[in-house]
Amino acid sequence: MLDRYAIVLIRRPLNALASPLARLGVSANQISITGFVIGMLSLPLLALGQFEAALVCILLNRIMDGLDGAIARLKGITDCGGFLDITLDFIFYAAVVLGFALADPANHALAAATLLFAFMGTGSSFLAFAIMAGKRGIENPVYHHKSLYYLGGLTEGSETIGVFVLMCLWPHWFAPLAYGFAALCLITVLTRLWSGYHTLKS
């Protein structure tokens, strides 16, 4: 829901970072993989209860996720880069939730499983529509610079990172935050199913 506004705010600073990196020959895929490795460090850190350090890794991952797109727009967007970017993103999101489950299995495991269930719905609805939109040549007027169709919803990347930040700052609130965000994700799934089905049908 907030991604379209967040993109406007961060576009200029990301472009300022991307330009010198692109001139040095750094590729978008290199940034994607580096950001993924940094983000995955949050998994063991969360499991060990190092929530502040994990938050740093999560935020760095998200900065680099925006940076790889900025570099790709300078050098040329590719299908393989888009595939790599979205795949690593989904793995990273799941890893963060798993990290909280490992930190306190007795109190976090069920909430984490519920949130991962909801993530499965948002991820599958997002990717399935992108495949069909690609087959039909449907373009998103809001995210036209992306390599695949970004189907919006109540819970997008901005909201997901926002709730991860809250979880790291107040880990004892993980369960209610996870259940609440899972409910919002399920609303997103329902709206995507309705809008996606009728868009493709028409």
SSE diagram, text form:
Blueprint: H1 3-23, H2 28-40, H3 42-47, H4 51-75, H5 79-103, H6 105-136, H7 157-169, H8 174-201
Task: Please explain how this structure is put together.
The structure is a single chain. The model has no long low-confidence stretch (mean pLDDT 88). The protein has a single domain, classed as CDP-alcohol phosphotransferase transmembrane (TM) domain (Four Helix Bundle (Hemerythrin (Met), subunit A)), CATH 1.20.120.1760. Helix 2 (28-40) runs parallel beside helix 5 (79-103). It has eight helices and no strands. It has 202 residues and is an all-alpha fold. 81% of the residues lie in helices and 0% in strands. It has helices at residues 3-23, 28-40, 42-47, 51-75, 79-103, 105-136, 157-169, 174-201. The protein is globular. This is CDP-alcohol phosphatidyltransferase family protein. One of its GO terms (molecular function) is transferase activity. InterPro entries: CDP-OH_P_trans, CDP-OH_PTrfase_TM_dom, CDP_ALCOHOL_P_TRANSF_CS. It holds the Pfam family CDP-OH_P_transf.
